[in-house]
Amino acid sequence: MTKFFAWVALLFGCLYFLLPLVGMTEFSLKMRRGVYSFDAYRKVFEDPAFWATFGYSLALAAATIVVGVLLVVPTAYWVRLKLPQARPYVEFITLLPLVIPAIVVVFGYIRLYNTSSFLPLTGSAFGTDFLLTMGYTTLALPYMYRSVDTGLRTIDVATLTEAAQSLGAGWVTILARVILPNVMVAVLSGAFLTLAIVMGEFTMAALLNRPAFGPYMQLLGANRAYEPPALAVIAFAITWGCMGLMQLVTRFAKHERAKA
Asked: Residue 138: what pLDDT?
């Protein structure tokens, strides 16, 4: 009886999440009356604004991943190696972006870095892009830190560090050539999650008035009928593609370790 109810609950959960997606996908295919077609998808892909905003968000995602890796990997490594007593405090700090809404963070940025402040980052496109990248890094911090921290738990950090130091390696060499390759799967997992977050983020990009993918989706949804569901399906596919790549990388790494 317990097994039966478990299957019923699983079926209900699948229907709850899949039926809206199926309905949205079907509606996106009805742009041409009486037949199913990909006209809505074609119009989305033919829109220059789609490629401009998609490329912009993709570039910011790459910058966010680089900044996140440079920030998180040395921090997580140092905490695990030298400062284990600081771990609860670091974990608390990395969890704050889940508690503090993005709108609070971005209004703080605007207040501190507007054109009349001591550091007027919002006065130029480059400065605003830099500010948005830092904001995205903050939003992705909980996921990137936990991915890297989980990867560091699977290796003997102290032994690897001592072995590298005995061969004359410095701290930069240890991080770049010893620690990072051993936690690369964890870093890639955090990177794919970061990509999914950046591609769908709306609040920060909209309030900082940047041409990102999230505001483009909202603008299209306010003015069109069939293209917004098509765009939502595309965004959904991007997110699940990132998750699939994450699983593929993890399985490939496990297979390589098993062969070794």
From this structure: 93
CA end-to-end distance (rounded Å), the chain = 44
On whether the CB atoms of residues 222 and 17 are closer than 8 A, the answer is no
In the predicted structure, residue 130 carries a pLDDT above the cut 90 = yes
Please compute the mean of the pLDDT values over residues 65-91 and round it to a whole number: 91
Q: Is the pTM of this model over 0.90?
A: no
Q: How far apart are the C-alpha atoms of 165 and 170, rounded to whole Å?
A: 7
d(CA 99, CA 133): 19
d(CA 197, CA 204): 12
Q: Report which DSSP code applies to 178.
A: I
Degrees (nearest 5) of the Cα angle 185, 189, 193? 165
Q: Mean pLDDT across the chain, nearest whole number?
A: 86
Cα separation, 202 vs 218, in Å, equals 8
Burial class (CB in 10 A: 0-12, 13-18, 19+), 238: middle
Amino acid identity for residue 171 in this structure: W
Place of tokens 């959904």: 236
- Sequence-separated (6 or more) residues with CB below 8 Å from residue 182: 151, 155, 160
pLDDT at 258: 46
